[in-house]
Amino acid sequence: MSATVIDGKKVSGEIRAEVANEVKELKKQGINPGLAVVIVGENSASQVYVRNKEKGCLEAGIKSIKYELPSETTEAELLALVEKLNNDPRANGILVQLPLPKQINEEKILLAIKPEKDVDCFHPFNVGRLMGGGAKLKPCTPSGIIELLKHYDVPLEGQNAVIIGRSNIVGKPVAMLLMQENATVEICHSRTRDLAEHIKRADIIIAAVGRPKFVTKDMVKPGAAVIDVGINRLETGLCGDVDFDEVKDVAGAITPVPGGVGPMTIAMLLRNTITAAKEQKKEA
Ligand code: NAD
User: Fold this and answer.
1) For 182-197, how does the pLDDT look when each residue is reduced to its tens digit (9 = 90+)?
2) Which CATH superfamily is domain 29-114 in?
3) Ligand 1 — pocket residues by CB below 6 A?
4) Rounded mean pLDDT of 207-232?
5) How far is C-alpha 44 from the geometric centre of its chain's CA atoms?
């Protein structure tokens, strides 16, 4: 039997439509949500991400304020821009696209963004709130994963979730969110022994490794939900971390690449931007 294919494009479209409706309502109350996106240098993948974020804003009626800085921008110059945006009421969210050129310390930049405008949820204050369970802004890719699982009625409570990858952007925060949904969570990584044995026990597999077709059919328990976060650029096109063609025959549900987790990330970013706008209005 073939797995249910989890359609991230469709679900993200629904969320974007909800966001657009909410933006209309907010505008009636005099709230005009805005997102500042800063890109430094010429990284081609980053250019694509930023273009997609801008397009997402436009479609949802969110004002997009884009800053394109040259690759030789200094840390002081970028810090000055972040400070300016921190004080700019038109920018409810600030997103500095990573990676940054090597002369700029990423951590310093992320720390400089006001936590209430940190729509990526990378600031230690927001990471701490995520740990405590009281986060208003949630990290985009991880919260997009939870939305997808819920949308397809994948049971989470009491289920064994195995995450492959321990990055600050995906692995660790998605672990936290799954734990808040009462899943039993295991985080595997490059030093995990007998990785396949861990994966085999999972009811839910989250693959965030960055290696094409890393998760194969023999590692997957029949009926498991498989979420593929990986984006690997091959000559033949985009490919996930899961061997989709094989694994779909054994999984219960599976996300494709492209069209799975990727579109959710932007939808959740838009949602965070309006959450930030509403919170800032309350405090104004
Ligand atoms: P990362 O490179 O920061 O982390 C990769 C993780 O994989 C590490 O924690 C490492 O321990 C683990 N790993 C590496 N080799 C392993 C092995 N042999 N066995 C077990 N674990 C191993 O990556 P990241 O930022 O978390 O991203 C992972 C993938 O997800 C990338 O392909 C990235 O492009 C993609 N990504 C997609 C989205 C999206 O919106 N869809 C968002 C973020 C990242």
Assistant:
1) 999 999 999 999 999 9
2) Leucine Dehydrogenase, chain A, domain 1 (3.40.50.10860)
3) 141, 164-167, 169-171, 188-190, 192, 195, 208-210, 229-232, 261-262, 265
4) 98
5) 19
